[in-house]
Amino acid sequence: MAENHKAGFVNIVGNPNVGKSTLMNDLVGERISIITSKAQTTRHRIMGIVNTPEYQIVFSDTPGVLKPKYKLQESMLEYSEGALTDADILLYVTDVVEDPTKNSEFLARVAKETVPVLLVINKIDLLKDQAQLEQIVARWKELLPNAEIFPTSALEHFNVRSIMERIVALLPESAPYFGKDALTDKPARFFVTEIIREKILLNYQKEVPYSTEVIVEKFDEKEGAIHIMAVIYVERDSQKGILIGKGGAMLKKVGTQARKDIETFFGKKVFLELFVKVEPNWRNRENKLRAFGYIE
After folding, report:
1. What DSSP string runs through 143-181?
2. CB atoms within 10 A of CB 231
3. Does this model's pTM top 0.70?
4. How far is CA 104 from the centre of its chain?
5. Is the Cβ–Cβ distance between 226 and 219 less than 8 Å?
6. Would you say 79 and 66 are in contact if contact means Cβ atoms under 8 Å apart?
7. Cα of 211 vs its chain's centroid, Å
8. Which burial class, exposed, middle or buried, applies to 271 when counting CB atoms under 10 A from its CB (0-12, 13-18, 19+)?
9. Is the pLDDT at 187 greater than 70, yes or no?
10. What percentage of the chain reaches a pLDDT higher than 90?
């Protein structure tokens, strides 16, 4: 290990849909968090880990901050608030369209932070001119006077390298927290469920994606291929019908899209079987939330 090795936790916080996952994947260099345009896709704290001989950065991507509507969201909000307490560096992500006062209580807590706060203003590719950007920067300087501000376009990889360089400069000296070959602290099955859930979010409307949970029941990895069996849980029979689609067409489509991504992720052939089961009202049942890994 390098002398004066640096390591630390960088926690990414911010409201839904500002591009936290896109930014995180750019920083980590691997597609780890699922990226879709629908709100609330990141329910867990996903760790992405960047290793070099000199340092280790542990990124965690928290669920977008929101007022909890039901039990599942309560556990999501606890994750976001927990992120404020165990970070070495806080990455607060916003964008050029968001109203800065949208979540003033959470922002007030960020403003009180003693750890370095890097404020990333994402999506600057949407702005017409420099003057617009200057106005937005000035506004944020008032709200988070101690933060260092980085105007960014994660989509176009603009200014992401400067954020990374600044993070490395701010890292405390420390031994690594994870093995140096670790890319994430999540098991392989987790990525399978995330990929399947992403396809559900992209293919269905309204409440269906938010009423689903995906559990991998079988993950059998052989040398040349992986056999995966996954169950998609929904809350009502009507949702089950929508998910499966006429003659099973929709479920087949989701399965095909997910299988291709899973094959890319693991770099080998995948056999994927999907089943749909009804589990009434699972989002408000504590034993179910525990079984699905939302409550420790």
Report:
1. H-TTPEEEE-BTTTTBTHHHHHHHHHHHPPB---SS-TT
2. 16
3. no
4. 22
5. yes
6. no
7. 18
8. exposed
9. no
10. 32
